[in-house]
UniProtKB/TrEMBL annotation, chain A:
Lineage, broadest ranks: Eukaryota, Metazoa, Spiralia, Lophotrochozoa, Mollusca
Domain PRELI/MSF1 per the UniProt entry, residue ranges: 1-201
Pfam families: PRELI (PF04707)
Top-level taxon of origin: Eukaryota
Species, as recorded: Magallana gigas (Pacific oyster)
A GO cellular component entry from the record: mitochondrial intermembrane space
Protein name in UniProt: PRELI/MSF1 domain-containing protein
InterPro entries (UniProt xref): PRELI/MSF1_dom (IPR006797), Slowmo/Ups (IPR037365)
Automatic annotation (TrEMBL), chain B:
GO molecular function: phosphatidic acid transfer activity
Pfam family, one: UPF0203
PROSITE patterns in UniProt: CHCH (PS51808)
Stated name of the protein: TP53-regulated inhibitor of apoptosis 1
Family classification: Belongs to the TRIAP1/MDM35 family.
Record's GO cellular component terms: cytosol; mitochondrial intermembrane space; nucleus
Keyword Transmembrane helix tagged: no
Keyword Amino-acid biosynthesis: no
Keywords tagged on the record: Disulfide bond
Catalytic reaction(s) noted: a 1,2-diacyl-sn-glycero-3-phosphate(in) = a 1,2-diacyl-sn-glycero-3-phosphate(out)
Any one of the GO BP annotations: phospholipid translocation
């Protein structure tokens, strides 16, 4: 098993970051994520939200690993998260699931080790990625202790590969991928935050336009009524001063 | 973003729109009363059916992890 961790600072306040975290997909930096659904969610009046989400991804293996392990089927990720608005902490934990065909796979029956070619082929008929590769990821978003206009992200990933002889090598390959993927994830968050800012200002403009129109409407109505009253009063005076002869 | 299952797409979009709006305009401002639970219930029924249909390992989905002893600790 191999682990990797990193820390990052977003130049945005915590509220903006967590809004983006809930809306992270789709974004052009993470095209591998194909589907997201909320399996369960509970909101506590004390200010916490527990969520359980299911993500479907194409698991992009480095080419060398893909040649050894085979082409994976659709990969599912189960993500549990807890957001605590009181102490401004958003924790997420995810792992990939066994795939749709979760039958036990006996590697010895389906494998062929060719020492002469130094290749290890796995017939991938009943193969699902989850049997061979387990990825756990954990993330925490919290306000920067010295600067509340910024948000810290702590991220840890562990990977375990169940391929005899090659697990160390493949794990190292996958770990190298985590740094690249982490950067894509952060860029994805920045992109989503930009989109949210645009939405917010567009909504603000719409609301302000609507408010101005309402104010103008009220003003015109009032002026129209004032004018009507003035006219009525003028006619009354005129009638009173004109006595029939 | 797509749902795992096309049947749930519309329900997902309605629920997501409600949740995102409520989260930023109400929850983050201190009003923690859930306003989207009705939409969520319908959407959730659809998702649970899709999970069964896709034969996704259900036991994984039922177990809470954070806050229990299953929560991963910092690797040291």
């Amino acid at each position: 098993m191999s682990s990797w961790s990193s820390e990052h600072i977003f130049e945005h306040p915590w509220e903006d970051v967590v809004r983006a975290a809930y809306r992270k997909y789709p974004n052009p930096c993470n095209p591998a994520v194909k589907g997201v659904d909320v399996v369960n969610r509970s909101v506590c009046p004390q200010g916490t939200i527990q969520s359980h989400r299911l993500l479907s991804t194409e698991f992009p293996l480095p080419e060398v690993a893909a040649r050894i392990i085979g082409t994976p089927e659709k990969n599912f990720i189960s993500e549990h998260s807890t957001l605590n608005a009181r102490n401004k902490m958003f924790k997420l934990e995810s792992r990939n699931l066994l795939g749709a065909n979760d039958h036990a796979m006996h590697i010895s029956e389906h494998s062929k080790l060719d020492r002469s070619k130094s290749t290890y082929e796995l017939q991938s008929k009943n193969l699902t990625l989850g049997h061979l590769v387990t990825v756990h990821e954990r993330m925490e978003y919290f306000p920067h202790p010295q600067d509340r206009s910024k948000t810290c992200l702590k991220q840890q990933s562990t990977v375990k590969v169940n391929v005899p002889f090659l697990s160390g090598y493949l794990e190292r390959l996958l770990i190298e991928n985590f740094e690249k993927n982490a950067m894509k994830g952060r860029n994805g968050m920045e992109w989503v935050m930009d989109r949210i800012k645009e939405e917010d200002s567009s909504n603000k403009v719409k609301q302000e336009s609507s408010d101005i129109l309402t104010q103008l409407e009220t003003k015109f109505k009032r002026e129209a009524e004032d004018l009507k009253q003035s006219m009525d009063s003028f006619f009354h005076k005129t009638q009173a001063n004109t006595s029939p002869l | 973003m797509n749902s795992i299952s096309p049947e749930c797409q519309e329900l997902k979009e309605k629920y997501d729109a409600c949740f995102n709006k409520w989260f930023s305009e109400k929850f983050l401002k201190g009003n923690t009363k859930d306003e989207c639970s009705g939409l969520f219930e319908v959407y959730q029924e659809c998702v649970k059916k899709a999970v069964k249909d896709h034969k996704i390992d259900l036991w994984e989905l039922e177990k809470p992890v954070l806050g229990t002893d299953k929560e991963k600790k910092d690797p040291s």
